[in-house]
Amino acid sequence: MGFGNLHNFNVVLFIFFLIIYLCTLMGNLLIIFLVSVNVRLQSPMYYFLCHLSMSDLVISTNIVPNMLGAILFGGQKMTYLGCITQLYFFSGTTVTECFLLPIMSYDRYLAICNPLRYSSIMDPKFRISLSLWPWLLGLTLNFSIVLPISNFDFCHDNIIDHIYCELFPLQKLSCSDTSGVELEVFLFSLPMFIGPCGFIVGTYAHIFHTIVKIPTTTGKHKAFSTCSSHLIVVGTFYGTLTAKYMIPSKGHTLLVNKIVSLLHTVFTPFFNPIIYSLRNQDIKMALKKVCGQ
Range of 259's domain? Predict the structure, then answer.
């Protein structure tokens, strides 16, 4: 149903979210393109940034086109298989980013705390294996969540008052006992939140300890600037994830759930390339070079 109670603003909301989606596509594709063509950006840090952009593209494209149809027409038909498929890719890319962000923090840890061995440790083979694991885990682990949901019995109406197929609204439609699945989601989300977050906190504790020892102000600023963008992205991603999954659905109102879902699936993929582009001199220089050519 999208925003079914805002019929008078359907066209305005459609145009607004269409612009956001197009900017998301252009921003993330631009980062992937710049890293691919610019030799200066072909380092492990930007390699992992490309994977973050690819994950943002998948999650945004999986959600937004169908959501735009629901907004414009006051609703959008979706098959049962389409609904489960959308849920699968949404949860899969969320799991992927959960594991990709700690890998990016580990890359910064090696670069700042162990610079002499950085190139030998983060060689192409190790870099590729690190980037593949989040995708493999994202595409396999979420089966434990999606399969039980696909076995729900639905005996109520078939109207999902949400912006995409997601656990919370599907629970409302099911006549099955969903408490077990909700507990499973909570227990599944807990280690995926605490583990990566704990790893990120640990690596950045070492990073900040190393930065404090750098004798020059310029060196400190340069080291911190390479980490600040990643910290902002981490805070945004895990903040919305906490609000969405670590709080039981009884603590959500429908409007709050839609707003948190928008932040996670629409605005986070939109802001990530902006954050990295505005705070990164190498990307700015690569963009100016491409524009100049």
Answer: 7-288
